[in-house]
Amino acid sequence: MKRTAAAIACSILAGCGKVASPALPPDAGPSQPTVEDVDPAPGAIAASARFTVRFSAAMDEGQLLAPSGRSESVVLAAEADVERAAAAIEHAPLSAHERTLLVPAEAGVASDRRSILLAPDSPLLPGEYYLLVSPRLKDEQGRRLAGNGARFAFHVAPPPPAARLLTPAAGGEVPWNVAVVRAFAERGRIALLGPHGEELVSAEAHGPVALPLVAPLSAGAEYSLALDSAAAPGQAFTAAPPPSCSTGRRRSSSPSRTLAAPPSPRRPGSSALRRRVGRRASPAVARCGSRGCAPPPTTRCS
């Protein structure tokens, strides 16, 4: 009886001492690579943003870059195309149609192959975008990326409204007595500011706006636009001075001459007198004829 109990106890202790063999991880190696960081952080970004994805291990460069030199495993897609793009990058290579779902971007892999940079070919339009990481990526040891890929959301805000001059042009010069200034803004309250920053006239903008002036501008002063009380950079013009004015008759630079009176009407027996008068007459009379010469014009100010 004692021997039986001892045998049972030894069997139990032997069973407790056994260690179960661990389950093999996907592919090779004890741990899977992960996405460590994304720059910029998800959220609002500038239209000129460039994207960097960092991994916890050196990745297979052949999967990060396609033969074209661009990436078909780490991509950027607009919100309208994100689901189809995510399904497309699960396999390789992409078809020509599937590539149209991606935002065109240059790709560059770091020398340690632990990060990839995406630089869109052109500034992003306002809207929602997603940075996608394919689940088929592996590291240099053949270990598949942990999880089912990755997705990061970004938002490009529309540019703030801006005001600009239509007539006169920015940086130009206008007559001091101009009656209307024309400007443009998509929205907001647009105003014309005087030389000291005072508001002269304003209007609500929904496109082109006419700003009528009720008084002449100050000659030589600068006037500028503002939108919603904020100055519009570079949108200014200058009022030209009024034209100079001189009065009186212009003087001739030639020596003065006394013009003889035209001959009197013909009378009988006056032929000798006419010959004497004709000899004494100056050349100016001969040129002017019997009508005489008109005085030079007088300059007047309008």
Helix and strand arrangement:
Blueprint: H1 2-16, E1 35-39, E2 43-45, E3 51-55, H2 61-64, E4 74-78, H3 82-88, H4 96-99, E5 105-109, E6 115-120, E7 127-133, E8 150-156, E9 164-167, E10 173-174, E11 180-185, E12 189-193, E13 199-204, E14 207-212, E15 222-227, E16 230-239, H5 271-280, H6 283-288
In short:
15% of the residues lie in helices and 29% in strands. By secondary structure, it is of the alpha+beta class.
**Gross geometry:** rod-shaped
Number of contiguous helices: 6
Helix share of residues?
Answer: 10-25%
Radius of gyration: 45 Å
Order of helices and strands: HEEEHEHHEEEEEEEEEEEEHH
Mean pLDDT score: 81
| CATH structural class of the domain at 35-156 | Mainly Beta
Structural class: alpha+beta
Could you characterize what this model shows?
This protein is 15% helix and 29% strand. It is an alpha+beta fold. Among the domains are: 35-156, Immunoglobulin-like; 164-239, Immunoglobulin-like. The strands form four sheets. The protein has a five-stranded mixed beta sheet with strand order 10-16-15-12-13, with no helix packed on it.
Descriptive tags:
rod-shaped; 16 strands; 4-stranded antiparallel β-sheet; disordered C terminus; 29% strand; Immunoglobulin-like; 302 residues; 5-stranded mixed β-sheet; 6 helices; alpha+beta
